[in-house]
Design brief:
- The chain is mainly β.
- Helix content is about 10%, strand content about 40%.
- It has 2 helices and 7 strands.
- The strands form 2 sheets. Strands 1, 2, 3, 4 and 7 form a 5-stranded antiparallel β-sheet that branches. It has a two-stranded antiparallel ribbon with strand order 5-6.
- β2 and β3 form a beta hairpin.
């Protein structure tokens, strides 16, 4: 997790990759993160759901994109049993870099106060077996 954060920090400083203007990059001190907590990294049981129908998902940009529910992740976190749906963006199925990724949207107690009100998400690699790791840090 820390390596990912360090890489992201460098991307923000790199003029070729950064979404920041030259002025903003000059004053950039880093993104704010929650402290890493191993309790928010869980093993989940993965269940493939192969007969789902594609649908249009509304995105934060307001654009509708074609997705299909790919599967479910069942896990326990902080003593609570949870289930998250895992989605595949149909535009990326054959993409060499993103074709093996799933979109996992979720909400938590930080939404609207410490993080974006619409929810949070993670991108994960399609599991090869019947389990996967979800890192909410």
């Amino acid at each position: 997790m820390e390596a990912h954060r360090a890489e992201q920090h460098q991307d923000f400083l790199d003029a070729e990759h950064s979404p920041l203007t030259n002025h903003d990059r000059a004053h950039f001190r880093g993104l704010p993160y929650f402290a890493i907590d191993s309790g928010y990294c869980v093993e989940a049981k993965f269940k493939r759901t192969p007969k789902e129908k594609p649908f249009k998902m509304n995105t934060s940009s307001g654009k509708l994109q074609d997705y299909v529910k790919y599967g479910e992740a069942k896990f326990e976190i902080l003593g609570e049993k949870e289930v998250l749906n895992l989605y595949q963006n149909l535009a990326f199925v054959d993409h060499p870099e993103y074709g093996n990724q799933l979109f996992v949207p979720f909400t938590d107690a930080t939404n609207g106060s410490d993080s974006y009100g619409g929810g949070r998400y993670m991108d994960i690699v399609i599991p090869k077996g019947k389990s996967l790791t979800l890192d909410f840090n």
